[in-house]
Amino acid sequence: MGSRASSLLREEEIEEIKRETGFSHSQITRLYSRFSSLDKGENGHLTRDDFQRIPELAINPLGDRIINAFFADGEDQVNFRGFMRTLAHFLPVEEGTRNASPREALNSRDSKLRFAFSLYDLDKDDKISREELLQVLRMMVGVNISDEQLGSIADRTIQEADQDGDHAISFSEFQKVLEKVDVEQKMSIRFLH
Amino acid sequence: MGEQERGKGRGIAMRGERERGLWRKVQRGLWNFISLFIPWEMRIKVIESHFGSGVASYFIFLRWLFGINIVLMAMTMAFIIIPEVLAGAPFGSTSRKQIPSDKMEEAQDLDTIWSLGGYLQYSVLFYGYYGSERKLGSFGYRLPLAYFLVGMAGFAYSFIALLRKMAKNSRLSLSSTSEENFTFCWKVFCAWDYLIGSSEAAESKVAAIATTIRESILEEQEKKKSENRFVIGVSRIVKHNSIFNPLNVQTRRCAPADALEGNGPFILWRNHRLSVVVSLITMLAPSVFELIATLEQYHPRSMLRFQLARVLVLYLGNLYSLIIALLDKVDSMSSLVSINEHGTKSSILNFTVSPLGSISPSHGLWNSSSPTDGWPFAKTVTVASTAALANLSSWQALKAPEEHENVTTIFGSSAQCWETYVGQEMLKLSIIDMLFTVGSILIIDFFRGLFVRFASDCWCWDLENKFPEYGEFKIAENVLHLVYNQGMIWMGAFFSPVLPAFNVFKLIGLMYLRSWAVLTCNVPHQQVFRASRSNNFYLAMLLFMLFLCMLPTVFAIVKYRPSRDCGPFSGQEKIYNIVLETVEMEFPPWFNTAVSYVTTPVVILPALLLLIILIYYLQSIARSLKVTNQELRMQLQFPRLTRAFPRGRRALSGALHSDAQVCATELAEQRLQSASLVPRPDSPPTLSSDERVVPRTASPQTGHHEPKILTRKKEPPKRNTHTPDLAPARPYIPPGFLLRPPLSSSGKL
Questions:
Q1: How far apart are CA B446 and CA B427, in angstroms?
Q2: What is the model's pLDDT at position B581?
Q3: Cβ separation A141–B190 shorter than 8 A
């Protein structure tokens, strides 16, 4: 397994990933071994079932959404590049790519928020509508609260955040809601070196 | 070159980062380790997630009281009990430490043991056992002085701990940040804790989220409620009247009763007439209060507080009737001692033991039918009232023999210790209270739940929806019971040093029993409201109780003469003389003169005046700081306001350069204006700061056993509702709880 792993990950690939995401060499190799351990089919790709095997994701009500975020549109598998690209969102803000400008790096505050936004925006139309919020709420609280109440909560949420009156939350409104929240700290994982 | 430098810089920055990270890791590890020792944390978190923070606050309060009692127990054990056991004269050596010969035969009777006589009376449990030698053992340990000082220190510690906790709480509530506008958004987007790994913790978290959402719904509802002023005004007047009337009746009847009118078949009724009235009042009154409370339409939190306050007044009436009776008895006992110096044997012990020993049969009278809501009350009240009654009746019995000369009740040499008597009373009260609590929990919650659950199949009406239903956890009564219990301990701790230790075990048992009962037999309230973050209300009640319960002890110390033949202060005029004696004998003469100067009114009165001035000064500082705090908070809201109200921007920016006060008032006006203008339809009213909910994450711990829960039986009946948007719905279906289907939306608390 070990030899296979190192053979599948070539130096130039590591360099590319480093440039794109900002991870360090050791981090990339470590994450690659994690990737391989998750990859039960050993074909270099992860499927949704592989992710479901992680217990923390399995019990998370929003686990499906998170898993979805790894997969690009319409795809059923994610390779290592895609895996790293998604994980790069969680790099702390100080450690980032040197090449890209701070704004556009994958771990900037903007990108983090965009990632979070995509968790809620199912149909990817750049807006969180009432139905999407309802689905999220339904997932979070289960059947404990009635539908009408959840509907009122969704309405109330949209009311609080909506500024242009289109009864949906756009990305900029989402940003404004979370401007007081310390997103850089909360959405960061200190990857081991 | 540039790359290299940057690389090096990066390396150094990394190292610093790593060190900081290491320190943070150490801190977190330490905190994780310490929090393992916080008792019952997981239990309380589970309860909080299923039942809301109101119910959990009861358990947190109980845990805090447990801490206080542990400290008290440590103090009394270390400084009084253990020295006496180790270095004092052993049992049987002196006259006060052995059972008098006429009591010997019955010393092992169940009756005697139940009323704490016999071997229990002549043991370290009570005041009377302690020797009065000034110095004990080879170290010269001053036991009497220690006894007195520990008694006072116990009160002082309780005061200090209580006040510190209150101060910390109020600091918490003041320092919480400014009002947020995005509460619901935050709840929706940021509620989940992604670090949870165990499925139990995940369940708790889901329940917690559901609960906080329901709480927020309720808060919003309360804000929208319009007040019908007339109804509320009338109902408040009615309420106040209806409190004072029963209290009047009670106090009138509680005045020391007339002498018993002879004997006869109805003596039992006459004896217990007083406590029947008292128990009836205390059983019926809380229901009446609740009825009135529903008319008043306060916020549920205020309703709870009013309920608490009213019931507290009732309890206090009870308690003080007991104290008055006790003090009367003590008065008569110590005055009789001074009158009669004969060495004739007395049968007073018989009098004291038997009426008290007859507490248990008399309770049989009150355990019969009682209406539903008053049950937890009846038992605690009847305990106090029958104890009071027993004292009264024994006091009556004291008076009666003046007419019957054949039974003389004169104190003998080894006979009576009023302090031991008081200690016995308190300990007995505590024990009986514990038994009744256990009984009431089992009967009222558990058996009722079982009955409703299994018998509703074959019963005429739907048991789960109508009459008995499942119990809700009554926060008000239970908190009050805790306060009352603690008051008992404080009253009796001076006379029975083992009382705090007994209370520690009692609280442990209570915690386990109640948490089990809540999870198994209770359903959540229909309306959950968020307990205010600063739980100062409970603490204020406790402070009040502490003050009241300290008074009788201090009064007894100052007024009564200690018994001549027992206890560490025997032979003195007053109990506090021990301190004066020690000061005189042990300290150098200049100290004595200094102390005698200090205790003259010339020094004390100015000191008092100074204290009052200091209090006033500190109060005014606190007030002005609060105002400043408010202004700063306004200023923080600045950016939001300027963006929302561009036309006010110029005025606002101009105000920045001027006096802060003017700025604050302008901002305040702007806010008022904004609130009334309502630029958007239904602009969300902001929740006040201490309602901000930060659901604590359940710490994932392994090895937590699942609470034993009876599974839900039938589907909740469909609820047809036409209530407005954010009405509280009932179909709360926790995993396997006994379920209680929805009542009307203005259901009871």
A1: 28
A2: 84
A3: no
* Cβ <8 Å between A98 and B6: yes
**Cβ contact A59–B191 (<8 Å):** no
Q: Note the pLDDT tens digit of each residue in B274-315.
A: 555 555 665 566 667 777 777 666 676 777 777 777 777 777
Query: Do B433 and B485 touch, CB atoms closer than 8 A?
Result: yes
Q: What is the mean pLDDT of chain B?
A: 69
Between B681 and A85, whose confidence is greater? A85
Residues 6+ apart with CB under 8 A from B143: B80, B83, B84, B88, B130, B131, B133, B135, B136, B568
Q: Read off the pLDDT band of A44 (50, 70, 90).
A: confident
Tokens for B18, please give them. Answer: 């790593």
Spatial contact of B354 and B421, defined as CB atoms under 8 Å apart: no
Nearest chain A CA: its distance from B118 CA (Å) = 58
Q: What is the full DSSP assignment across chain A?
A: -HHHHHHHS-HHHHHHHHHHH---HHHHHHHHHHHHHH-TT-SS-B-HHHHHTSHHHHH-TTHHHHHHHHSPTT-S-B-HHHHHHHHGGGS-TTS--SSS-TTTSTTSHHHHHHHHHHHH-TT-SSEE-HHHHHHHHHHHHTTSS-HHHHHHHHHHHHHHH-SSSSSSEEHHHHHHHTTTS-HHHHT------
Token pair, residue B320, equals: 């003080």
Please tell me the least confidently modeled range out of B57-66, B153-162, B374-383.
B374-383
Distance from C-alpha of B37 to C-alpha of B14, rounded to nearest angstrom: 35
Whether pLDDT at B553 is above 50: yes
Q: Cα(A169)–Cα(A167) distance, rounded to whole angstroms?
A: 7
For strands A169-170 and A127-128, give the pairing: antiparallel
In the predicted structure, residue B605 carries a pLDDT above the cut 90: yes
Q: Tell me, letter by letter, the H, E, C secondary structure of B573-640.
A: CCCCHHHHHHHHHHCCHHHHHHHHHHCCHHHHHHHHHHHHHHHHHHHHHHHHHHHHHHHHHHHHCHHH
Report the residue count for chain A.
193
How many contacts, defined by CB atoms under 8 Å, are there between A and B?
Answer: 95
Q: What percent of chain B has pLDDT over 90?
A: 12
Chain A residues with CB under 8 Å of a chain B CB are 55-56, 59-62, 94, 98, 116, 120, 133, 136-137, 140-146, 148-149, 152-154, 156-157, 159-161, 177-178, 180-181, 190
**DSSP secondary-structure letter at B746?**
T
The answer to whether the Cβ–Cβ distance between B207 and A144 falls below 8 Å is yes
- Please tell me the least confidently modeled range out of B36-40, B176-180, B628-632: B176-180
Chain B residues with CB under 8 Å of a chain A CB are 6, 13, 17, 21, 180-186, 188-192, 194-199, 202, 206-207, 209-210, 213-214, 217, 220, 680, 682, 684, 725-727, 729, 731-734
Give residues with Cβ within 8 angstroms of A103, minimum separation 6: A110
Helix B375-399 crosses helix B348-357 at what angle (to 10 degrees)?
A: 160
Q: What is the ipTM of this complex?
A: 0.75
CB B170 within 8 A of CB B629: no
Rounded Cα distance, B201 and B41, in Å: 13
Q: What CA–CA distance (Å, rounded) separates B202 from B213?
A: 17
At B607 the pLDDT is: 93
Q: How far is B745 from chain A (nearest CA, A)?
A: 14
User: What is the C-alpha separation between A167 and A128, in angstroms, rounded?
Assistant: 9
Structure tokens at B605: 């009165």
